[in-house]
Amino acid sequence: MVKKDKHTKQILTAYCIKRDDKWVVLAGSQIRLNNSHFNYFKNMFKSIKEKRDDLIFEQKIINGILQEDQEFSSSSYASVFVLGRSSNGKQEWKPCNKIPDLSNSSSKSNSIDKEILYRICKNRRNDKNKKIIAYCKKTNENKFVVLKNSNIEMIKANHFKTKLLYIHNSRKECIKNNFRWCWI
Predict the structure, then answer these.
(1) Which of 17, 24, 45, 75 is surrounded by the fewest CB atoms within 10 Å?
(2) Can you give the pTM of this predicted structure?
(3) How confident is the model over 28-85, as pLDDT tens digits?
(4) How many Å apart are CA 158 and CA 167, to the nearest integer?
(5) Cα-flanking dihedrals φ and ψ of residue 147, to 5°?
(6) Are 24 and 14 in contact (CB under 8 A)?
(7) What are the start-end ranges of the H helices in 58-157?
(8) Beta carbons within 8 Å of 107's beta carbon, 6+ residues apart
(9) Helix orientation angle between 75-83 and 46-57, rounded to the nearest 10 degrees
(10) Which whole-number Å values give the CA distances from 9 to 4, 129, 153, in the listed order?
(11) Where's the DUF4357 domain (predicted)?
(12) Cα 19 to chain centroid, rounded
């Protein structure tokens, strides 16, 4: 699921699989932190609201990133959990060919200097119908790491060679290393 929040303009990406008649939202998925403030949400989805609040309190949702897989009885309950509002799971969840390794997304450290996960979602320069989705985390060393299974724009921008030489060289290094890791 890739969804843009109307209020914050943040784009969320979450992954769900069906396992033994349960819908499982995978650890590393992004969770919208704002619950709907309408009474219908508080009443109709009381158990989901309480589950979200409990997981935030227990630090199983950190910086909007789910730390552990969560099971639900329906696709709609799974999407309500992710979006914090009423939604139709059959419409929200879209099949995807490959689920990225989200193990780098979760912040399992209990230290004050938690890693912060960033996500970028942009249209490709040569094909506006396709998206580049990449994940990056800021480490406690004030460095950014592009995570594996992130997409990268393969078209070279000429101004990188002169104005952004460091980025140009980093991209070359990423390509040389088959995108296993990349420091920026």
Answers:
(1) 17
(2) 0.55
(3) 888 887 766 666 667 778 888 888 888 988 889 888 889 889 999 999 999 989 888 8
(4) 12
(5) -80, 155
(6) no
(7) 75-83, 89-92
(8) 62, 63, 65, 67, 114, 115, 116, 117
(9) 50
(10) 6, 20, 23
(11) 65-94
(12) 21
Token pair in block for residue 80: 């309500």
Q: Are 103 and 143 in contact, with CB atoms under 8 Å apart?
A: no
Encode burial over 22-57: b for 16+ CB neighbours within 10 A, e otherwise. ebbbbbbbbbbeebbeeeebeeebeebbebbeebee
Burial of 142 (0-12, 13-18, 19+ CB in 10 A): exposed
Q: Angle 89-90-95 (CA atoms, 0-180°, nearest 5)?
A: 100
